[in-house]
Design goal:
By secondary structure, this protein is α+β, with helices and mostly antiparallel strands. The chain is built from 14 helices and 22 strands. Strand 19 and strand 20 form a beta hairpin. The radius of gyration is 25 Å and the shape is globular.
C-alpha cells in the first residue's frame, strides 16, 4: 500500500465518564474517548439499558476537541438534559442525562492529546486533513481483518472507492470484488438479485440466475446503498451473513459461500432502525466496523491533493502544473454539494475543453448557475434564453461523463439513468467524441 507521510501532529480531545445512577444496565459506567460509543436497549450497544422507554439504538457519544458530542439517534422518547430535549450537544461540565426512565451522570476528564495519524493516503484515496487521516488509519486496521465494514457518507463521497481499497488491503485481494447496488433493485426482485434463482421459479425467470455471493466466493461483496433494501428481505440477508450460506429462489438446498461483506449507505441507518424500517440485528451485523466519510465541504484542504491525483488518473500527470492558484482558491471556497464526484466532473470538463495553457477549473463549477448568470435577457424570449442555458448544461454534463467513462455509452447511460440511444443522441448533438466509435 502506497502511503504519504506528513508532519506528525496532535489534537486535544475532551472525553469523560458516564455513570448509571438510575436504572439497570450491563455495566455501571462507560468511558468516552475518541471512538464513538452507543447507548441503547440492543445487546450490541456499548452501554445496554434494560428500559422499555429506551430505543434499540438511542444515542451516541464521542470525545472531540469541543467536548463530548452527544447525539440522539432519532430515539422514540428522546434524550433530555433537564427539561430540554436534545438533538446534538457538546458536554464540557458535569451533567445529568435522562434516557427513558434511566439516568446517567457525565463527568468530564482531563483533556487528552491524541496523535493525528501520519498516513495521508490509503490505496487510491488521498487526503491531508485530520478527518481523512483518521479514516485512513481506521481503514488500515480494518483491511486485513474479516470483519464486516459499513461505510457511511453523502452521495458522491467515494464509498465504492473506499470499499475497493478495503478489498485490496485484505488477503482476498486476488479474488473477485463484486458490487451489488441495492438501490437499483426493484423490491419484488430483491431476494432473487441477492441470492439468485432457479429457472422457472417465478414468472419471468426464463433462465437461471447466479447469486452475486457465488460470484464473489473467496473475495468481497460490496452491498451499496444497503439502506434501500426492503424490510422483508433483510432477515434473509442477516441469515446468509451469519451462516455463510445462501439458498436461491426456487431451490431446496443451501450453498456455502466464503465472502467478506462491505456495505455502504447515504442513509442514517440508526434512525432507520429506530423508525422500524431497518432491522437492528442486521445493522450491528454489517457495522462491526463503521467508517464515516466526511463531506468534501468539511475537508476543503484536501482539494489540491485530490485535483492532482484525479488529473493523474485521467491520464495527464502534467495538467496540475497548469492549474492557476486563483482557480484552486476558488475551488476551496465552493461548498461542493456533489462532493468528490462533483469535483471529478469539474476536472473532466476542464481538461476536455482546455488542452493547453492555464487551467481555470473554477469556471466549470455549477454550469447551470453560471450559464444562467451569463445569459443576456435583453431582446430575448424566455424560451430562447432557456434553450441556451440547457444546451450549455447538456454539453458540459455529457462531456464530463464521456471523459469519466472513457466513451463507454452503457456506463454513461447507467450513470445518467438514460437509454443508450438517448445518450448517443446527446453526444451527436453536442459533437462529443465520435458516437460511431464509442464502446457499448
Amino acid at each position: 500500500m502506497e502511503a504519504t507521510i506528513v508532519a506528525k501532529g496532535k489534537v486535544e480531545v475532551r472525553g469523560g465518564v458516564l455513570t448509571v445512577t438510575r436504572g439497570d444496565a450491563n455495566k455501571p459506567s462507560l468511558e468516552i474517548g475518541a471512538d464513538t460509543v452507543v447507548i441503547g436497549r440492543n445487546e450490541a450497544c456499548n452501554l445496554v439499558l434494560d428500559d422499555k422507554k429506551v430505543s434499540a439504538v438511542h444515542l451516541e457519544l464521542v470525545a472531540t476537541e469541543r467536548g463530548v458530542r452527544v447525539r440522539d439517534l432519532g430515539s422514540r422518547n428522546g434524550t433530555f438534559l433537564g427539561d430540554t430535549r436534545i438533538g446534538e450537544v457538546f458536554l464540557l461540565k458535569p451533567t445529568t442525562i435522562l434516557i427513558g426512565d434511566s439516568v446517567v451522570s457525565f463527568s468530564p476528564s482531563t483533556p487528552e492529546e491524541v496523535e493525528v495519524p501520519e498516513t495521508a493516503q490509503f490505496g487510491p484515496l488521498v487526503g491531508v486533513s485530520a478527518g481523512m487521516r483518521n479514516v485512513f488509519e481506521r481503514l488500515r486496521k480494518a483491511g486485513p481483518t474479516e470483519l464486516t465494514v459499513l461505510i457511511l457518507g453523502e452521495t458522491g463521497c467515494g464509498k465504492e472507492l473506499v470499499a475497493q481499497a478495503i478489498h485490496q488491503a485484505s488477503s482476498r485481494n486476488n479474488k473477485p470484488f463484486v458490487v451489488v447496488d441495492c438501490g437499483a433493485i426493484p423490491p419484488s426482485l430483491a431476494e432473487s438479485a441477492l441470492f439468485g434463482h432457479e429457472r422457472g421459479s417465478f414468472t419471468g425467470a426464463v433462465d437461471k440466475r447466479v447469486s452475486p455471493f457465488v460470484e464473489a466466493d473467496g473475495g468481497t461483496i460490496f452491498l451499496d446503498e444497503l439502506g434501500e433494501l426492503p424490510v422483508d428481505v433483510q432477515p434473509k440477508l442477516l441469515r446468509a451473513l451469519a451462516e455463510q450460506r445462501i439458498k436461491a429462489v426456487g431451490s431446496n438446498t443451501y450453498r456455502p459461500v466464503n465472502v467478506r461483506v462491505v456495505a455502504a449507505t447515504r442513509r442514517d441507518l440508526v434512525r432507520e432502525v429506530n423508525a422500524g424500517t431497518f432491522r437492528s440485528d442486521l445493522y450491528f451485523r454489517v457495522a462491526q466496523i463503521r467508517v464515516e466519510l466526511p463531506p468534501l465541504r468539511d475537508r476543503l484542504e484536501d482539494i489540491p491533493a485530490l485535483v492532482r491525483k484525479m488529473m493523474n488518473d485521467m491520464g495527464d500527470k502534467h495538467a496540475y502544473d497548469r492549474v492557476t492558484t486563483e482557480s484552486l482558491e476558488r475551488l476551496m471556497r465552493h461548498d461542493w454539494p456533489g462532493n468528490v464526484r462533483e469535483l471529478r466532473n469539474v476536472l473532466a470538463v476542464a481538461m476536455a475543453f482546455h488542452k493547453e495553457g492555464p487551467l481555470d477549473l473554477a469556471q466549470h463549477i455549477a454550469p447551470l448557475v453560471q450559464a444562467a448568470e451569463s445569459t443576456p435577457t435583453r431582446g430575448r424570449t424566455f424560451q430562447d434564453a432557456k434553450r441556451e442555458v440547457l444546451a450549455r448544461f447538456e454539453r458540459e454534463y455529457f462531456t464530463a461523463l464521456y471523459a469519466e467513462c472513457t466513451g463507454n455509452v452503457s456506463e454513461i447511460g447507467r450513470r445518467a439513468a438514460m437509454e443508450r440511444a438517448h445518450v448517443r443522441g446527446y453526444l451527436r448533438r453536442h459533437g462529443i467524441g465520435d458516437p460511431k466509435n464509442t464502446i457499448g
